[in-house]
Design a protein that fits this description.
This protein is of the alpha/beta class and 336 residues long. The chain has a domain at 2-170 and 210-236: NAD(P)-binding Rossmann-like Domain (Rossmann fold, 3-Layer(aba) Sandwich). It contains nine helices and 14 strands. The strands form four sheets. A seven-stranded parallel sheet has the order 3-2-1-4-5-6-11, sandwiched between helices. The protein has a three-stranded mixed sheet with strand order 12-9-14. Helix 1 (11-22) crosses helix 6 (213-222). The chain is globular and about 55 Å long. The chain binds nicotinamide-adenine-dinucleotide.
Length: 336
């Protein structure tokens, strides 16, 4: 089996690539390293540095390798920031996906596995089920939902098989903790390592359900071997929500750090979001959840061992500065 993993230098993609190799796949990774890290890439995978937005590159890769499966995990998944980088978001996350879907149709691959997101539900009561009508509220979620619809159309017209997995709040070793715009657990850990207060938008009572990477990655990799997963849309994650205040407390405890929290004005975000896992449990079997305290401790242990601290960068080329949270803005950026 020959498999393409896009975003395989990233957090989830590199774990998925590891699992595909364990399943006996030959793995090619396509990643432009905008968020990933060379050190994440499994040694047995062939790495191609490049972007899914590069149509010629994508086309030549498909011609050369004749993939059986495509696991598409490349994206810039900064949901809140996506309001302010709309063009970048749609080009990177949507058009890049379309390049892969076109080639997957032309080369009649066996299955396209797409990492969608709980963001497609927008602000609706949790637990969110796959039958909840999607109402994404930000460009990131809108692009994910557009790709879901495009895959359904490609299946209808050309018979392209897909598996859509709606992920949410995955965390664990290899996650990028140098990104100021996403991954709350990574952001908090980084703030503690930098001796800074933890920053929370709003009152911290918003809730999310967090999933430790291990079992999620093996389910994603193995999904191609489960007939019932084909042409299905499946929530995949935890259904045990925690407040952001609680997460802050667990991380502070883990690092024996003094409690210093800076509450910032609330931003435009969904307050409570977690997903019903009935379909996932029935198709993949019930995952053994790693409890949040243990998962954070495992992630912290990995970070202490593998220092990957880099300078935290601002996103260049913000398109809309209006309403951008102050801590996301570089002083040189101005609207207009
Ligand atoms: N982490 C989560 O909780 C979560 C939740 C929902 C959905 N997802 C989805 O899962 C996927 C992986 O997320 P992650 O958390 O591992 O993020 P990540 O940033 O660690 O990994 C994404 C990888 O994609 C690469 N990439 C981005 N744009 C690219 C492009 N144009 N061409 C080639 N490579 C590109 C990055 O360099 C990075 O290595 C994404 O599609 C994301 O939308 C993640």
């Amino acid at each position: 089996m020959k498999t393409l993993v896009t975003g395989g230098a990233g957090f989830i993609g590199s774990h998925v690539a590891d699992n595909c190799l364990k399943l006996g796949h030959e793995v090619v990774i396509l990643d432009n390293l905008q968020g990933g890290n060379l050190l994440n890439i499994p040694k047995k995978a062939l790495f191609i540095k490049g972007s899914v937005t590069n149509q010629n590159l994508v086309s030549s890769l498909f011609k050369e390798h004749r993939f059986d499966y495509v696991y598409h995990l490349a994206a810039y998944a900064a949901e809140g920031l996506s309001h302010h980088i709309r063009r970048f978001n749609y080009n990177n996350n949507l058009i890049g996906s379309v390049n892969l879907i076109n080639e997957s149709i032309k080369h009649r691959i066996k299955c396209f596995i797409f990492s969608s997101s709980i963001a497609i539900y927008g602000s609706q009561p949790s637990p969110l089920s796959e039958n909840t009508p999607p109402k994404p509220q930000d460009p990131y979620g809108i692009s994910k939902y557009a790709i879901e619809l495009d895959l359904q159309a490609a299946n209808h017209v050309f018979g392209l098989n897909y598996i859509i997995l709606r992920l949410h709040n995955v965390y664990g070793p290899k996650q990028n903790i140098n990104d100021r715009y996403r991954n709350v657990i990574g952001i908090f850990i980084r703030q503690i390592l930098d001796g800074k207060p933890l920053t929370i938008f709003g009152n911290g009572q918003q809730t999310r359900a967090f999933s430790f990477i291990t079992n999620i990655a093996s389910d994603i990799a193995n999904s191609v071997n489960i007939n019932r997963a084909y042409n299905e849309t499946i929530n995949i994650g935890s259904d045990k929500p925690y407040s952001i205040n609680y997460i802050a407390k667990v991380i502070l405890n883990e690092f024996n750090a003094k409690e210093r929290i800076e509450y910032l004005p609330e931003r435009f975000e969904v307050l409570h979001a977690y997903a019903n896992q009935e379909r996932s449990n029935s198709i993949f079997g019930k995952r053994k959840e790693v409890e949040i305290e243990e998962g954070i401790s495992l992630m912290a242990g990995w970070i202490k061992k593998h220092s990957r601290l880099e300078k935290i960068r601002y996103f260049k080329n913000i398109e809309i500065i209006n309403k951008l949270p102050a801590i996301w803005n570089h002083p040189s950026n101005k609207d207009g």
